[in-house]
Amino acid sequence: MCGGQLRGPNGIITSPNYPVQYDNNANCTWVITATDTTKVIKLTFEDFDLERGYDTLTVGDGAVVGDQKTVFHVLSGTTTPDLVVSTSHQMWLNFKTDDTSGSLGFKVSYEEIDQGSCGDPGIPAYGKREGTGFRHGDRLHFDCLPAFELVGKKNITCQKNNQWSAKKPSCVFSCFFNFTTPSGVLLSPNYPQEYGNNMHCVWLIITKPESRINLAFNDLSMEKQFDFLSVKDGGKAESPILGTFSGDVLPAPITTSAHVARLEFLTDHTYTERGFNITFT
Predict the structure, then answer these.
(1) How far apart (Å, rounded) are the C-alpha atoms in residues 181 and 153?
(2) Between the N and C ends of the chain, which has fewer C-beta atoms within 10 Å?
(3) Single pTM value for the model
(4) Same fold flag, 127-172 and 176-280
(5) For 74-113, what is each residue's pLDDT tens digit?
(6) Does the 127-172 domain belong in CATH 1.25.40.10?
């Protein structure tokens, strides 16, 4: 459906044809009104993919569509805030597309929440959060699990305009880490999103001296013949190579001859892929 008047307490809005590609030259407007006028509207993004720089979703406060003073965000591409909260009992959305290629579109959910709240921004994957309040002045603190690096702000505060001071951070797998646990998961940086160009990552897995290490490949997707993952039987750069992998064919499980394994990940300056997910025991 292209636009309409919507009422709470909750619901879903999607781009026309979603999850199939939306139409060219679309101009759709939705106005959401809370059934309880003492409450505000929280908008959460579940899926978002628009032609970057050409197709946009504008989100505004109140019911005066197009009023630039009320605009929270003009969104394009695949980047969105965690959530948007209105300051009144109404919120408007305007979706515009140009006359060329489109994308899959968007799916957003809305619900009524109490005034004075920024809503729950969530917890990053592979992360943890301290703080339970989402009211004005409340602060949340984020950290990442071992082997992950925090990207973004460690602390965010609920502001009086019902918006958090920043997006919740993300936890990205470190490019260098020594594992000393008997089992765990090893991921390419940014997995399951695309890894970066020009990377040279090294991980060591070190277990008890009398043990061996088993590696099971759960997922593998790398630029074939240009990006590589090498598994070595030992902790040194010159240790024997048990396997070098590229492309998207899942290797068979690998077992080391001793208690140390070295994994090296190298990428070139061009195309990137999803990367890999490996379980070690």
Answers:
(1) 28
(2) N
(3) 0.75
(4) no
(5) 999 999 999 999 999 999 999 999 998 889 999 999 999 9
(6) no
